[in-house]
Protein: Rubrerythrin family protein
Organism: Odinarchaeota yellowstonii
Amino acid sequence: MSETLNNIAKAFIGESVAAVKYTLFAEIADKDGLIEAKNLFIKTAEQEKIHAKIHFRLLSELCAKRNTSILKVAVQLPVELGDTLKNIELALNGEVYEFKTMYPDFAEKAKKEGYEEIAERFQALARAEEGHAEKYNSLMKKIKTLK
């Protein structure tokens, strides 16, 4: 399997997991009475689902060309859970990793393998994740000043 195909699969898994985690984080924020955090988690979860769908469609297309429908992928799975402030920090760290490291690395490898369009998608997703990080960072600062 090409490294790019493997990276798309990892991105699909990561975005899917993020969507579920953010939904759970929203429930915790709701219980903590932090409605702004709840709403941001819900909104970001929806956006992560869109990212996951993009990756899944691309995976399906590329796998069909290779006559396969099953991929074996090894991933690291962060499973930490906390109160709302901790969850915002976890979300921020995940988004920063995606826009500073993961997607730029994936884009570079896609370019090297001749997948220019996929590299551009990865770069666009890095920009989207940077926007998520900025929102989480802003919210974290706001909540910390209220405490």
About this structure: Residues 3-146 form a domain with the Ferritin fold (CATH 1.20.1260.10). The chain is about 80% helix and 0% strand. The helical segments are 3-31, 35-65, 84-112, 116-146.
